[in-house]
Amino acid sequence: MLYIAARDHVFAVSLSASSEQIVPQQKLTWKTKDVDKCTVRGKNSDECYNYIKVLVPRNDETLFACGTNAFNPTCRNYKMLTLEQDGEEVVGQARCPFESRQSNVGLFAGGDFYSATMTDFLASDAVIYRSLGESSPVLRTVKYDSKWLREPHFLHAIEYGNYVYFFFSEIAVEYTTLGKVVFSRVARVCKNDNGGSPRVLERYWTSFLKARLNCSVPGDSFFYFDVLQSLTNVLQINHRPAVLGVFTTQANSITGSAVCAFYMDDIEKAFNGKFKEQRNSESAWTPVPEEQVPKPRPGCCAGDSSAAAYKSSTTFPDDTLTFIKNHPLMDEAVPSVNHRPYFTRTTSRFKLTQLAVDTSAGPYKNHTVLFLGSEDGRVLKILASTQRVCRFPFPRCNVRGEDRRVLGLELDREHHALFVAFSSCVVRVPLSHCNDYGSCKNLKADVVMRAVKRASLQSEQLLEVICFVRDVFAELVLDNLVSYFGVVEECSPRLYPTPQENICILI
C-alpha cells in the first residue's frame, strides 16, 4: 500500500491495481478548525490549512499522522486498513512543524517517536526530540545552543543498531570566515538514553554527537557539495551497510549536484574519533587532545563500550556530561565511499532534489540503479558502480506552473514502478517497456535507443518521456540491461490537486 500525505488529506493507493492511473483506495479528510485564529495572527491564507507533515507507521496496524493545523500542530493515530481515527488527538508541538515550509523528520523506534523540527511559532527553536514512549523519558537537544543545532534543515532519520541517526544541513558553527556556510551533518543519539543527572543535562540528550558529511571531488583543490537534499535508508553497497544522498553546492556558488555514498562503519568511526572545540570566541576550532576526554567516553550508550559499568545515563559522571554538552561536534568528517561522488552534475542550471535506489536491478539483480529528481521536473536514471557511473536520462515530467521541483521519489520494486511527487500531483512511472527495443544494442550511434512519446497529464499538462542508452557500455552489459532500461510509453497520473509538499511512504 502507498500512503500519500497532502493538504487536508491522506490517500491510500493499492500498488497491485492494474490501472496506470493512481486511484485512491481510501481517502482521509482532516481539515483544520482554526482558520480564523490563523488569519488573525496575520498569516497568509494559503498557510491556514492542515498540511500533513508526518505520516509514519507506528506499528503493523497503525499510522501516526501530524498536521500543521493552521499553525496549531496536532497528531492523531489512524488505522491502516480503513484510515479511521484511533484514539484521541495529541499535541503536535516538537513533533510537527507549525507551517508547511519548515523541515521535519520523524520515525518510531522501540515504541518511541523520534522527531526533528521547529518547536515554536517563530521557528527559532530547532529540536531533536523523543516522546510518546511508555517507559522512556522525554528528551530533547539543548535550547538555543548553536553548537548543538544552528538553523538546521532536517532531511532524514534512520534507526540502526543501538542508535537513531538524523541527517540534516545547517549553518557551520566551525566555519565562519566567509559568513554563513552550510554543511551537511549526521547526528546520533542512543535509544537507551535517559538524560543526564539533576546537575547536568537533565531532560536533555547525553549521547548527542554530530559529524560533517564530506561529499567532494578530490584534487589539488577539493570541490565540495555541502548541502544535503535527500537520503536513502540503509542499504548494501559492496556488501556493506551504507546510505546514499543527493548533495548540492552552496546557494551562492556555481550550480552543481552530486550523489555520494557513506558506509555506516565510517560514520561510526567518525563518532569514535576526536572531538572538535573552540577554546574562545576568537580562536580557531581544533581537535581536543585525547588525554582531555573524560571517561566514560562522552557520547557512549549506557551499558556499552567504555560506559559498560553504567546502567543508565543518569548516573554518568558530571565531567562526562559537561564535556558532551560543550563538545557535540566531531573533528573528522565522514568520508564518502571511494572518497569521491558516485555521480556529479555541474552542467545544468537545475539542481538535483531527490533520490531513490534499486540495489538489485537487471535480470540478474546485480546492478545498482539510481533515480534522481531535479528542480525542473526531470527524473534521471543512472547505472552506478563504485568504479564508474553512466547516465540514463529517464522521464522529464513537465508539470505546468512555476513549481516543477521533484519533491519525493518512491520505488515500487515489486510492480516495477516509480512514484514521483510534485507540489500538485503524484506521478506513477513504469520502469521499463523494452520489449520492442531488443535490437537497440546492435546500433553503433552515440544514442543507441531513443523514443519520445507524450501522454495526457491532468487537464492539458504534458509529460515528455525520454529514455536512451549510450554506447559507453559493453555488449554484455547491454544484453543484461536491455530488458530493464526501457522506454516509458505512458504516464497518466491523476490525483486530487494538493498544492503542498507530498509525502509518500510504502508499507
From TrEMBL:
Keyword Glycoprotein listed? The answer is: yes
The organism's place on the tree of life at top rank? Eukaryota
Q: Which SUPFAM superfamilies match?
A: Sema domain
Alphabetized SMART domains for the sequence: Sema
Q: Which GO terms fall under biological process for this protein?
A: axon guidance; neural crest cell migration; positive regulation of cell migration; semaphorin-plexin signaling pathway
Q: Which residues form the Sema domain?
A: 1-431
Keyword annotations for this protein? Glycoprotein
What InterPro entries would the database entry show? Answer: Semap_dom (IPR001627), Semap_dom_sf (IPR036352), Semaphorin (IPR027231), WD40/YVTN_repeat-like_dom_sf (IPR015943)
State the protein's name.
Semaphorin 6Cb
The species is: Hucho hucho
